[in-house]
Amino acid sequence: MACPVQFLCRVLRNVGLVLLYYVFSIGITFYNKWLMKGFHYPLFMTLVHLVIIFCLSALTRRALQCRTGKPRVVLSWTDYLRKVAPTAFATALDIGLSNWSFLFITISLYTMTKSSAVLFILFFSLIFKLEEPNPFLILVVLLISGGLFMFTFKSTQFNLEGFIMVLLAAFIGGIRWTLTQVLMQKAELGLQNPIDTVYHLQPLMFLCLFPLFLFNEGLSLSTSEKLFREVELPPLLYSLFTLSIGGTLAFGLGFSEFLLVSRTSSLTLSIAGIFKEVCTLLLATSLMGDNMSLLNWLGFIVCLSGISLHVGIKTYYSKNKGPSLRQLHGKSPELELPLLKSGDKGEDSAADEDEEQEITLH
């Protein structure tokens, strides 16, 4: 049995990692909404973020290589285009549509609708045989879809265009995370480390979004004084600085998730994600002025019940049937890394996960 000091250090470490994850995850959501109020070019913003994430992931790979002395994986062009491209295409559309929707909808509606991604992840996991069918999944689907209907029913701040965008993003997100799980679990590719996966995804994601950006925002942005026609240097530097903040937050989100999973467990991240949704809605109503009726709150509670049931089912089956493929559970407007372990965590981390699962089940 660990001594009280070791136990306290472990608790403080876990709390610190969860808080770090909250800062980046909630921060990127409010940052995107804040930026979209004055900068109406979400696709260009996303492209800038992708460039920053690629640069930071490249620097991280270099640091890991210097620390371990082992070269990082670099895929061949054949594997890159055939096996990474579908995941990159789905990820780019998910992120692009998510950021685009902030032009039209509130943070509360975005958060609630994006939570429905669990339904689509379940659907595609069953198709790709990454998830074992069980009768409880029907209840999960009913709770989440029913909660979403209650939340959007007679909403005073409902916007159909933005709702369709984020719902489509949630649907594509189901494809995205399923393909990402398949990609990371192919041992021959060597992309088990999320940093390597992120590094390989960014260039193709940029190429996928760039034509859409040119068609929708290219001419407007080139003639706008927000960036390219800015005549004074300080406003231009301020615009570039504000755009770079989002890319740093997006990379920090993925890295904080990876730290949380590797130091604790995917169960911890799943549970932390549920409470993160609550914190996001509370902040949205208090800071952003989002209006939520009693029916909206009840719908949110019903939806969270479905997500919690899903986490409980995954915990139960993984504990009673041994190791299995972990389903990915991504809900953020930016790159969220899969809930997969990268390598062995060691005896302490395994003990942590067993303890957490026992607490959750009992």
TrEMBL record:
Keywords: Membrane, Transmembrane, Transmembrane helix
Pfam families from the UniProt entry: TPT
Sugar phosphate transporter domain mapped to chain residues: 17-309
The keyword Membrane appears for this protein: yes
Membrane topology (UniProt): Multi-pass membrane protein
Renumbered residue ranges of the record's region Disordered: 332-362
Biased amino acid composition, Acidic residues: 349-362
Residue intervals passing through the bilayer: 12-32, 38-59, 103-128, 135-153, 159-177, 198-216, 236-255, 267-288, 294-317
Official protein name in the record: Solute carrier family 35 member C2
Organism of this sequence: Parambassis ranga
